[in-house]
Automatic annotation (TrEMBL):
Matches recorded under SUPFAM superfamilies: alpha/beta-Hydrolases
Protein name as annotated: Alpha/beta hydrolase fold-3 domain-containing protein
Stored InterPro entries: AB_hydrolase_3 (IPR013094), AB_hydrolase_fold (IPR029058), GDXG_lipolytic_enzyme (IPR050300), Lipase_GDXG_HIS_AS (IPR002168)
Protein's UniProt keywords contain Hydrolase: yes
Keyword Hydrolase in annotation: yes
Protein source organism: Spizellomyces punctatus (strain DAOM BR117)
Any GO molecular function: hydrolase activity
Length: 455
């Protein structure tokens, strides 16, 4: 008979070889499985047409509780933060944004103890501050913070580095607002950069630009990232290995924009794909200019998992970064907070972490964030354990792909073979029966305008 210690240790180990070759994963609920199937199918059906993809999100707005206050503002672009490749004319105009407040405030010019600058995801070409309100209002609630969500310019109309400039302009608006706006002025240590997916990568890129090019501007106090997109070259094993579980498609084939020289909307040419401000995986640690304290969350069944692990453990091994891997979770699993307790837990942990770091700054203490990797299980109580060598997960994934003949080139420096030929994510009818209960839960997640009653 195995001891409880053995059982606990084995429960925390990520056994990638024993995972099923197709979804669902053992800890998924019926509703979660169906929701992922619908999401994957929708993305697959529209990935080859930018126009159709935008039709799904351009007018979409996630409902929020009535007590949430949304205040629309316009942020002037700054011409004194121009990443290489930009001209002053590219920094004209203003950025649409909104304040998201959970706690009552006196007025829109009131300063708070802490503020979150939020950069939404959407592969750089879709979504907006409106589509991500289900995440942003909860973060404002759990972190007891004002949250500023911005609509940076989207690709392919605005390619790198234009969106990066918008994020930098929003940050400077917080720490150095133009006098005519009457906006509150924040100290850098009060500000946390946040973002999901492409927005997480963009928020991180802004921090890296400030580190390397903006010494006249102070760094933000902290960063909190959800499944940040760190490698547009798709060089890590999980991009292929976790394809059967994640909902992310391999990319777009829209012939109007995509061709052999350009594989992503965000870049004008593939030569930019490994630029450190496009793919932060290729950035390097600088002991003389450290990153601010950082927390990153990702699913251990998502396609971006290995690039995130590699960034934290191999590229920035001495930086103050806490990485959290969530059992059987997919890309930006926090968006399912209305369905899954582990998704809501992730957002709560973000809020608690931000509160802890900013509170230390308020007491004029340097926050202590230990560099570590944690794994959080998707079961009752959501137990947490330290992962001693997370890079072993990446190496094991590589060996699995090599054994399956799904790895091309050199065994160490090759790449996963793309999975475009695989069948799309489907729902196993033997596991999930479409019934009224599931339909009702899916209706609650439907993207719609207006607001809903808070519980």
């Amino acid at each position: 008979m195995r001891s409880s210690t053995q059982i606990d240790r084995e429960a925390f180990e990520l056994d990638q070889r024993s995972r099923p070759l197709r979804s669902p994963l053992p800890t998924w609920s019926r509703t979660f499985t169906m929701t992922l199937g619908v999401l994957r199918g929708t993305l697959e059906a529209n990935k080859n047409s930018l126009r159709r993809a935008r039709l799904l999100t351009d007018k979409a707005a996630t409902p929020v509780p009535l007590r949430v206050k949304l205040s629309k503002i316009y942020i002037p672009r700054r011409k004194d933060v121009l990443p290489e490749g930009m001209a002053e004319k590219d920094a004209e105009g203003a950025i649409k944004a909104e304040w998201v407040d959970w706690e009552p405030i006196k007025n829109d010019k009131s300063a708070a103890d802490r503020v979150i600058l939020y950069v939404h995801g959407g592969a750089y070409f879709i979504c907006s501050r409106k589509t991500h309100r289900g995440i942003t209002y909860r973060l404002a609630k759990y972190a007891k913070a004002r949250l500023l969500a911005i609509d940076y310019r989207l690709a392919p109309e605005a390619t790198f580095p234009v969106p990066l400039s918008d994020v930098l302009s929003a940050y400077l608006f917080l720490i150095d607002p133009p006098p005519h706006t009457g906006a509150p002025k924040y100290r850098p240590e009060q500000i946390t950069f946040m973002g999901d997916s492409a927005g997480g990568g963009l928020a991180l890129s802004a921090i890296l630009w400030l580190r390397d090019n903006g010494r006249q501007f102070p760094m933000p106090g902290a960063a909190a990232l959800m499944s940040p997109w760190m490698d547009l070259t798709h060089s890590m094993p999980s991009w292929r290995l976790n394809n059967p579980y994640d909902y992310l498609p391999d990319g777009s084939n829209d012939p109007k924009y995509i061709n052999p020289e350009r594989s992503h909307y965000y870049v004008s040419h593939n030569s930019f794909l490994d630029h450190p401000l496009v793919s932060p995986l290729y950035a390097k640690e600088n002991p003389n200019r450290p990153l601010p304290p950082m927390i990153i969350q990702c699913g251990d069944a998502e396609k971006l998992r290995d690039e995130i692990i590699t960034f934290v453990e191999e590229k920035f091994p001495t930086s103050a970064i806490q990485l959290e891997l969530y059992e059987d979770q997919v890309h930006v699993f926090q968006m399912f907070a209305s369905l899954e307790s582990i998704s809501k837990l992730g957002l709560r942990r973000f809020g608690e972490w931000i509160l802890g770091v900013t509170s230390q700054y308020a007491k004029e203490r340097a926050p202590r964030v230990e560099h570590n990797v944690l794994r959080i299980l998707n079961r009752k109580g959501h137990p947490v354990s330290v992962v001693k060598n997370a890079l072993d997960i990446v190496e094991e994934a590589r060996r699995i792909l090599i054994g399956r003949g799904q790895w091309s080139g050199d065994k160490k420096f090759g790449k996963p073979k793309l999975s475009r030929g695989e069948s799309a994510f489907v729902v196993n009818p033997e596991y999930v029966q479409y019934d009224e209960e599931v339909a009702e839960e899916l209706d609650k997640l439907a993207i719609a305008g207006g607001q809903v009653q808070s519980k």
